Amino acid sequence: MLSNATLTFSKNGDLNTTRQGIEITKFHLPTSGLAVLALIMLCLPWKTFADQQAPKTYDLPICAYVASYHPGYEWQDRITQGLQQSLDGKCHLKTFYMNSKSLKARRELMAVGEQAANFIKQSQAKVAIVSDDNAVRYVLQKHFKDDALPFVYCGVNHSGKRYGLPYKNTTGMVEKNPLEQLLRLIFTIQPAKTRTAMLTTQSNSANINVNAFIELARSLGIDYSVYQVSTQKQWQDAYLDIQYNPNIDILLFTNYQPIKDWDARANVELIENNNNILSLTMQHFMMDFNAIGMIKIPEEQGHWAGEAAMEILHGSRPDQIAVVPNEQFQLWVNPKLIRPYRTAKMDGIINQAIVFSPNETP
């Protein structure tokens, strides 16, 4: 019996049996023989033929994926979704979540990085994918720099230079925030109000974003300040300080995820009752707490990483695939928080934006 064979009939009744694109045999069946063959095929379980048509997971090449964060974190989930969509039916994706937002000590990050490296080695992957900075720093850079195994990275904040990227075995997509575009847009509406405060958390990614913000603020020639917090109380104190500071015109609130005792309900109420300064963000999950967002699209990172992985599986070297920045953004407004700032110019932005509602997924 021929397994995984393809059966085709010619016009004159010849039965051509091929396997993996190579002709195995050809013979002629009389009409009665065709009838018998048809009867046999009808009697066989349909699953046999369906299985021959559908690719089996164990027949696909293995792609190992190390995610910096945890399932349930919106940014992570949407990168993973984009990656899964681009690799569906093409690669058997094995995933390891580092859950690094719950890890503070460097030794903990080093330990989980080693676990992830062992996961990749044991997966028998043909290509590996890593997303966001901690996976790049503690897995790719630490264990696989210039390794024989090809890697695709994505979600690396601003630039890979601090990790010495690219390596001989890598390509990737860096994560660029549309902060300059967002600030310039707001400056056209309120050109006399440019003093900007950044409110963020304490983490590796936050530190990278703070440095990028300071560099941008200096290049734009604007006054700036930075608040980094790690607890609910620190955040509330900082938020109120910003809202009632006469030397601040704009609040850039970027992330709350590392704050373990974050109270979303209480903080939404605090914001709505003290909404004195226009607030901006670049993450969709932050739109409950900000008036305007120019939002990165995480799926773009995942889609690109999956497509790059497939190019590698089809024979391209990683260093033949150009490293690129993300290019897709969406403008969002929170109608409740934008209300005090509505002017004719602001309405011009609002009319082009997507209106946010709580618990909405774009």
TrEMBL record:
It comes from the Bacteria. InterPro entries: ABC_transpt-TYRBP-like. PANTHER family: ABC TRANSPORTER, SUBSTRATE-BINDING LIPOPROTEIN (PTHR35271:SF1), ABC TRANSPORTER, SUBSTRATE-BINDING LIPOPROTEIN-RELATED (PTHR35271). This is ABC transporter substrate binding protein. It comes from Thiomicrorhabdus sediminis.
